[in-house]
Please model this.
Amino acid sequence: MEIEKMNEVKMKYKNGQLFWGFLFLTIGVLFLLDKNNFSLLLPNEIWKYWPVLIVFWGVAILTKGTILKPIISILAGAFVGLFIYGSIFGLQQNFDSESGDKNEFSTSTFYEDFRENTESATLSLRTGIGKISIGGTTDKLIDGTSSGFYNNFNFKTRYRDNSARVVLRHTHDGFELLGDSQYRKLQLKLNPIPKWEVDIKVGAAKVELDLSKYKVSKFTLETGATTTKLKFGDREKIVKAKIEMGAATLKIQIPEKTGCMIKGDMVLVVQNLDGFNKIDKKRYQTYNFDESENKIYINIDSGVSTLTVERY
Model:
């Protein structure tokens, strides 16, 4: 009797190990694949498949004490890991415009012709989950491509005298963590001639902004849980940037000869500030700030985040 009880306890412990082990293994593997830009093909809005969890629960009860129980534990752990990752973080969908449901997945391009008398321009972007990238130049005022599920934008451009204003708004109003988790991608190119003001507000997204080829005088970024890479150039004497972020990872690149001052309450921020001196509790600046001809002023309002600044 004692041996049977011990074997039963060991079997339960083994099954529990298999479940939790494959749950965390699945989440970890998905993170690694995503970090290395592997496309993941998964059902759209995986959270809708939650009844499968009940099915696994019922099968686990029916197979108790049988040789199938460890297999069910493995499958259940892997599915729960997939379910958690897909529901919270969203997964990339490996589709193109010729596959999947065309009512959901779409690829679209948009642009605005450049007027020769345009001296200044503003880009105002509002969107949620996805991958957003800005980089490269175009002879248009703006040239963009969007793709993904429900990834349609209202695109408007208004001219007034020698200035232009470009407005991009995602057609889905609001931000839903679960219902808005489809993979989306937005790529933009800007004209390098006018002086730009860039105003971006995104939700949980991966953001890569290479602004080094543009004359950016003012930059505003408001983000949620994001991974953001931001690169400034030296085409403007003075750049003023304001960044508000939640639990985000932010990497900024600035030219070696450009002076930079960072202000903000960053008590809980993990900092890696290359070439900066701490002035006081809320101010950091590069050693060459005072004598630099070009200067970048960055105000940061952040939650628990990681901030890295590199010189290039």
The radius of gyration is 25 Å.
